[in-house]
Design a protein that fits this description.
alpha/beta, Aspartate Aminotransferase, domain 1, 2 domains, 12 strands, globular
Length: about 350
Amino acid sequence: MTGGARRSAFGAEFDVPAGYLNTPSIGIPPVAVADAVAAAVDRWRAGADDPGDFTAYVDASRASFARIVGVSADRIAVGGTVAGLLAPVAAGLPGGARVVTARSDFTSVTFPFAAQAHRGVTVTEVPVADLPGAVEGHDLVAVSVVQSADGAMVDLDALRTAAAEAGAAVVLDVTQAAGWLPLAVDWADWVVGAGYKWLLTPRGAAWLAVHPRALDRGHPVAANWYAGEDPWDTVYGLPLRLAAGARRYDASPAWLAFVGAAAALDHLASLDVRAVHAHCTGLADELRGRLGLSPAGSAIVSLETSVPRERLAAAGVRGSIRAGRLRLGWHLYNTDEDVDLVVEALR
């Protein structure tokens, strides 16, 4: 990496200031990604595009997200938000289904299921470390692979074994994991992720990987023209005619968001994710070590501190407060300089 406002990292340029550690809230795009979106805005203002021109961007993002999570592209549905993509999953649960999740998980993961209470669906929260041991007696596990509030990670190997033994389905949210954590989650029934954090896309792009065994378990409550086998054949009139595969859960895409998503995910999917993981967790654990904390192996660091946010901002540190603690995230564009800034700000 190089110093200054523009940083070079992993084959990309970033216009990111020193001390920007707020990726768990908003990721900073590579310059090329921002330029692609800006060019799309210029085409828009000049009336240069037709709706069908954006299909290539949407499909490119499907293919790249599939590579990132370790599945085939034909499993991928597109949408705008995690909650929107999980709504069909929740609606497809049988009445009286029992769901278990991590305590204080992000509500886009839990609310779609809690909203089914009128059908007798129950949602039970347990500490994330205890989740694999709590699967027995439940029909579905819904959990973020990396917890938004503090970066804690679920034991995926233990969860997979426990779910298989209990015959429970599994929903994984990779929003705080995809982009820095190596993922091989083709075994899960559903894998959902939003792009505007670690995947460095504009807000408004999200994906859902649907396992073939789960394809018919969802209820397409947001069925729309774009979910047809040929969207340009399903713009008018009945009968309902949805795609045979995962695309039956597609939401009509936000075009400009997917222009950025196609470029950002293509770049991220081309990287050695093990090197990215080592970089991100190495910086996070370097900070933890300098603050007298044990390594955690997560790109998110959650710190208890009495230092006011104004002082952090004055020192050039940009993070966020979650669950009463300072949350910092370390991504491609962060460096040792950022570690130094945090340490100095907290002294």
